[in-house]
Amino acid sequence: MKHDSDVLIAGGGLNGPALALALAQAGLTVTVIDAAPPRARAEPAFDGRAYALALASQKLLAATGVWPAIADRTQPMMEVKASDGRPGEGAAPLFLHFDSRELDQSPVGYMIEDRFLYAAFLDAMEAEPNLTLIRGTAVTAQEIVPGGVTVTLSDGRTLSGALLVGADGRRSATAERAGITREGWGYGQTALVAAIAHELPHEGIAHQFFMPTGPLAILPLPGNRSSIVWSETAENARIIAALSDEDFLAVLRPRFGDFLGRISLAGPRFSYPLDLTLAKSYVAPRIALIGDAAHGVHPIAGQGLNLGLRDVAALAEVLVEARRRGEDIGAIDVLERYQSWRRFDGTTLALGMDTVNRLFSNDNPVLRPVRDLGMGIVQAIGPLRRGFMRQAAGLSGPLPRLLQGRRP
To answer: For residue 14, what are the CA distances in angstroms to 42, 75, 114, 383?
Structure first.
């Protein structure tokens, strides 16, 4: 069967472009169908959205050629500190401290603003001859046909490929049309997201404070700025989100603390409800899911994008190797190799973050000293602590070539 492209990708956020570049650079033809308007997320003004990139994710971006375009816009994370806390009281005396000097490689990770990362992906896709980007258009239907899959677009066009990849988020229409069901639950929490300017330098240190109503992450950005991801109960968050900027800061300050001096808002505020959603399968005939389409997780450790890029690296390697062997890249036995590589890791990490959130998002007088002692024990045992660090950096387990900084 003659295809328009080897691989069709529904979704042009971040994971879709990353996979498209990896495949196109290996010689496959790829079409990315992005429902967002052209460059809608690549505006020059800072909108407060940012990502924590694990060290392995940075290696993937380097291997696909995206890293040079953003390297000087990133903020290295040299240390991570995690502790229990209560508003107005500061961190608990027992805490967990990850220092990049303990890794074979440093830093622990990098912070990058969404506008820079997305723009770099757009530029790289537009420069890749094996890649076609269709913007402002959605996939409205898909059909498995002999030897491939066809999709219908919102502008009436039809396209065919050997494989359709769903990179279209937690409510993936690709998964739904393929009959892939999901399981999960809400947390009764909402994430309040904003960028904060502060008086004192952050020294490249990321902080995670576990408050009774939800975790507060303070993540360093270039300059005297930090990104916050503040999880609150849904009712509290609804009230806080409706406050003026000054009243919002008044509620934040007791939780943020004064260790960075005076604080102010450095961009708009966002909020979104938190839930866990896991696809019961990552694959179906001629279909594969990556990123949030496969697993939507709690932002407690900033691992959402990193988990998606692990999917990208594994799927790219499976497809490229299958093509080199002359196999049908959309065949279910090929796709099962991807699922067997990624589903256990994605599910265990998602449930692990779920457990941490449930363990720490309370002020239970029995649990609090136990969890503080647990963090103190991990901190005191070097090999255990370094194991957690390697896991957070994405350097544990069998790594695909892209996560090692090599092309598949």
So the answer is: 12, 19, 9, 34
Rounded (5°) CA angle 252-254-255:
65
Q: Where are the domains of the chain?
A: 5-184+276-404
Rounded CA-CA distance 6/8 in Å is 7
Element (H, E) at 256: helix 245-256
Tell me if 225 sits within 8 A of 214, measured CB to CB.
no
Q: Over 60: is that where the pLDDT of 377 sits?
A: no
* Cα–Cα dist 329/326, whole Å: 9
- Answer for the pair 219, 50: CB distance below 8 angstroms, yes or no: yes
Assess whether pLDDT exceeds 90 at residue 211.
Answer: no
**Phi, psi at 211, each rounded to 5°:** -90, 160
Name the pairing type of β-strands 225-233 and 214-221.
antiparallel
- pLDDT of 396 reads 66
SS3 of 377, please?
helix
Domain spanning 5-184+276-404: CATH superfamily: FAD/NAD(P)-binding domain (3.50.50.60)
SS3 category, 73: helix
Evaluate whether 227 touches 189 at the Cβ level (below 8 Å): no
Q: Where is 150: in which H helix or E strand?
A: strand 148-153
At residue 329, the 3 state secondary structure works out as: coil
pTM greater than 0.85 = yes
- State residue 95's pLDDT score: 62
